[in-house]
Design a protein that fits this description.
Blueprint: E1 3-14, H1 54-66, E2 74-75, E3 78-81, E4 91-94, E5 101-110, E6 113-126, E7 130-134, E8 137-141, E9 148-154, H2 161-178, E10 190-200, E11 210-213, H3 218-237, E12 245-250, E13 255-261, E14 271-272, E15 279-280, H4 283-291, H5 297-308, H6 312-319, H7 322-335, H8 340-358, H9 369-380, H10 386-399, H11 403-410, H12 418-431, H13 433-440, H14 444-457, H15 464-477
Parallel strand pairs: 11-12
Antiparallel strand pairs: 1-9, 1-10, 2-15, 3-4, 3-14, 5-6, 6-9, 7-8, 10-11, 12-13
Length: 478
């Protein structure tokens, strides 16, 4: 029997508020000693009263609007009861039947076409403490407990691990454009639980779903979903039965393993949080938030194509990162729209290569837009050649110095003197008799080799147009 995969995603994102969800403790705990950003409220002491963080509510409304959700007039918080060591109060303040946003959607690219993935809900809750496992013991760090946590739940409409990956990338980009979350999966501020089910091809009835947890990178999410869907198919093909459960991803082994039998909503014994009032949203306030929404990735991509004449490929990659798109447009302000493709080529080529090779975020790069534009202008006016510009770019990346200073220090000015270039070419021809013979015999590749030797001799400083012109003259005389 053939089966198709059905995936639904639950994505938790820590919100970039200064204080926690229900108390005034700082959320800036990344480098803090354990259990130092705590108070009686986030420690779950008896008798304390939580207070709602308005900024966290606003960020959740922003996200829900960006995801085309309906914002109801009324919302409330609920207690989700379960016993686990990282839950300080013995329950989590979350939302159950009245979320902040519902019935939304976003689109992804799937097999060359657009696919709409519906979103069930966007709701707000508090994060839990962090457990540190040491052998047979576990330690608890409460610094994270109470940090605002926004959950976005998709409908089970995703048909492959690749589609799920595209959905997660799109969602993270939206959160980063809104500046409501860092979206850093490796740091735990963006976490995904994948609900994976199979169903016989052509059937509408889903087999028991499995929730996969403990994935801490986009690569791991993709691998975990591929493994789990394969595992489920193998169980069925061997005559076994699937059970609804929670499984954890074991990165080192590349497998999922059982953690616990999956709880159902009734097991959590939800009931309205008695210490927090319901919230009634004023339409004018919602409209005010809607008016402040920034240009989102898809709209920005389309504008880059229409306004700057960029190919779809370039526009897609540039707008996948808000920081990269901002950098690109800052360069354009200095150089003009006519240079859009030139700037894009450098950013998506050598610039991105340096970022990837050094694992550097563009926010931390030492090359300012002013420095990059300065270098491109030096290429434009013939001061340096394209190969020399690559040398300048690498030095700027390492040192943060301006392009003109580097050109002077390394003596990279382009050689445009015909007499000097002719002398260099004559020497290269004399030193590479076989390549010259091959060219004379009709082997065009030999010409590329000879040109390369000229550029190597001049350390990329020779004017390429002049080199080609003089080289043709010299080879024509042979």
């Amino acid at each position: 029997m053939e089966y198709e995969i059905v995936i639904g995603l639950e994505v938790h994102a820590q919100l970039l508020t200064k204080s926690k969800m229900f108390c005034s403790c700082s959320t800036d705990y990344a480098d803090a000693p354990p259990n130092t950003h705590v108070c009686p409220i986030c420690l779950g002491m008896p008798g304390v009263l939580p207070v709602i963080n308005k900024k966290a509510v606003e960020y959740t409304v922003m996200t829900a609007l960006a995801l085309n959700c309906t914002i109801p007039e009324y919302t409330k918080f609920d207690r989700k009861n379960y016993c686990y060591p990282d839950l300080m109060k013995g329950y989590q303040i979350s939302q159950y039947d009245a979320p902040i946003g519902k019935q939304g959607w976003l689109t992804i690219d799937s097999n060359g076409s657009k696919k709409r993935i519906n979103i069930t809900r966007v709701h707000l809750e508090e994060d839990v403490a962090k457990l540190w496992h040491r052998g047979n013991s576990s330690l608890i760090d409460v610094n994270r407990s109470g940090v605002p946590l926004m959950e976005t739940v998709s409908e089970p409409e995703i048909s492959s691990p690749e589609e799920a990956y595209a959905y997660l990338v799109k969602l993270r980009n939206i959160l980063r454009y809104l500046e409501v979350s860092t979206g850093n999966m490796e740091e735990g501020s963006f976490r995904c639980d994948a609900n994976i089910s199979l169903r016989p091809l052509g059937s509408k009835e889903l087999l028991p779903k499995v929730e996969v947890k403990n994935v801490n990178s986009f690569k791991a999410v993709l691998q975990a979903m591929k493994h789990e869907s394969k595992r489920q198919k193998e169980v069925l093909e061997e005559g076994g039965e699937l059970v609804q459960e929670t499984r954890g991803w074991v990165e080192g082994k590349g497998i999922t393993q059982t953690q616990r039998t999956k709880e159902y909503a009734a097991d959590y014994r939800y009931f309205p949080e008695p210490d927090l009032p319901p919230l009634a949203f004023d339409k004018a306030w919602i409209d005010e938030i809607r008016a402040k929404l920034p240009e989102l990735p898809e709209a920005r991509r389309d504008r880059f194509i229409a306004q700057y004449g960029l190919p779809l490929y370039d526009a897609n990659i540039l707008t996948n990162s808000k920081a990269l798109a901002d950098y690109f447009e800052n360069c354009l302000k200095l150089m003009g729209h006519s240079k859009a493709k030139v700037i894009s080529n450098w950013l998506l080529g050598d610039f991105s290569r340096l970022l990837n090779a050094t694992n550097t975020e563009i926010e931390n790069v030492k090359i300012s837009p002013e420095h990059l534009v300065e270098m491109l202008n030096l290429v434009d006016n013939g001061t340096i050649s394209g190969p020399a510009a690559k040398v300048v770019l690498e030095e700027m990346f390492l040192s943060g110095k301006g392009a003109s200073n580097i050109v002077l220090e390394k003596k990279l000015n382009q050689i445009s003197d015909t007499t000097e270039i002719r002398a260099i070419i004559k020497k290269v021809i004399a030193d590479n008799a076989k390549a010259v013979s091959d060219y004379s015999a009709g082997k065009q590749q030999a010409l590329t080799f000879i040109t390369g030797q000229v550029m190597k001799t001049t350390r990329g400083r020779a004017n390429p147009t002049l080199v080609n012109e003089v080289l043709m003259q010299e080879l024509g005389e042979k």
